[in-house]
Amino acid sequence: MASDGEANNTEGCSSNGDLLEASVCSSAKAEILKEMIDFKVVYNKQKFDVSFPYDETVGSLKQHIHTLTGVPPAMQKVMIKGLAKDEKTLRDQGLLKGSKVMVVGSTLNDVLAVNTPTKHDQKEEKATTPTKEPLCRQKIHKKVIDKGVPDDCMPGIKNAKESLPPFPLSGMVNKSGGKVRLTFKLEVDQLWIGTKERTEKVGMNSIKNVISEPIEGHEEYHVMGLQLGPTEASRYWIYWVPAQYVDAIKDAVLGKWQYF
């Protein structure tokens, strides 16, 4: 016959077991009861059928859209009755069952395509690399530099270091000769690369490296390469970067001391 102490222990164990089982059941019911909403995501003429928790945020939806489209969340603009805000839930945004969610944005490959060298350029770059020839003398860069300083280029200052200005850096050009504008959105850890056609929002942590060299004869300006992918072939080249802002750009993108 069980003693009173043993009986109490048995009852305690039974009580704890009931509580654990109730907790597990409660969690399971919460998952089952989580309201889902079905809708379509439309991106570049592609349509995706999506079922997603109605009370999840737009930021969470962007993560899911990244798996579908390859567009990083930082580069997405999600339209739900206007531009959707990351911190809002789908319910807050007023998303309706069966509606279309429009997504605008570019993959990293799209960004690089604007600046990707031709096979001929790659051969030239490979041929000049072993000699450690300055960037400005390499044929793939020289043909851009030889066009001269753009008329609307910001003034450069040789042997000077300044903080980033409160306005975008403009008047620079990329390898195709198109105008480039750099806007540093430090509050969201993004670099906006603007061209005439579009503005790409690139997360700072996705930029693997930043290199630069002064342009001979115009040392107040630099050639700068932003490495947007895992290899050097993914460098996005920018010309006529004012020398006084080069260190500040590297600090902002890579974090101080990381580029040495």
TrEMBL record:
PROSITE patterns: UBIQUITIN_2 (PS50053). CDD domains: Ubl_UBFD1. Pfam families: PH_UBFD1_C, ubiquitin. It comes from Limulus polyphemus (Atlantic horseshoe crab). Residues 35-104 form the Ubiquitin-like domain. Signal peptide: none annotated. This is Ubiquitin domain-containing protein UBFD1-like isoform X2.
